[in-house]
Amino acid sequence: MLRNARAVVRRTHGHTVADAPRWAVVSAYAASLVVLPSCLWRIALGFGAPIGPLRGDMSDARGDVPAWVPMWGYTIFLSVLSEALAFLAVGLVSRWGEVVPRWVPGLAGRRIPVLAAAAPAGMGAAALTVGTLTALPGFNDFTAPDGTAVRLEGWRLILFAVSYGPLIAWGPLLAAATVAYCLRRRQRPSPTALTAP
Question: What are the transmembrane regions (predicted)?
């Protein structure tokens, strides 16, 4: 069973590099997974599940979303985008984070400079850490379309906390994977030729 799971992970995410420490691999994969509960909560809310701070008609809660975009479509798009960005952490422990994959025309097989991956990952880790820590004091406060304050209570609050709580770890996990990536890439002797994954 475990062997099958590893095969599926390798097919979907690519091979992890041999010299990546286990803690870095765990950090990278965990960083890509801590976003999932909030994505599922958001999608359920977009489909009209009564789990959010507003009860009843969600048509007034659209904010800046254009009227022609269905709320469920917007929440799916936002969730897929969030998960795709989170998945980039896996590149910090995979071959595709060191060498451009062969399916990329014109760049296939080229070595990715350390800073090209580490700089955005480091800035992302810092922004995520600061952003989640500053949002913590008011995580239960929402504003209704009419401007009044709305608070989650009871089981809705528990579900929201369980769904969004893991996001606190996203920044630190990404930071750990980024530090390991930098250390590994700088200590490793530069190979004369790298093959694309």
Answer: 21-51, 71-93, 114-137, 157-183
This prediction's pTM: 0.80
CA distance 151 to 130: 23
How does DSSP assign the chain, residue by residue?
Answer: -HHHHHHHHHHHH-PBPTTS-HHHHHHHHHHHHTTHHHHHHHHHHHTT-TTSSS-S--GGG-TTS-TTS-HHHHHHHHHHHHHHHHHGGGGGGBGGGTB--TTSTTTTTPBPPHHHHHHHHHHHHHHHHHHHHHHGGGTTEEE-TTS-EEE--HHHHHHHHHHHGGGGGHHHHHHHHHHHHHHHHHHSPPPS-----
83: left (phi over 0), alpha (psi -120 to 50) or beta: alpha
| pLDDT tens column, 145-191 | 556 677 788 898 899 999 999 999 999 999 999 999 999 988 765 54
Tokens of 129: 């850490």
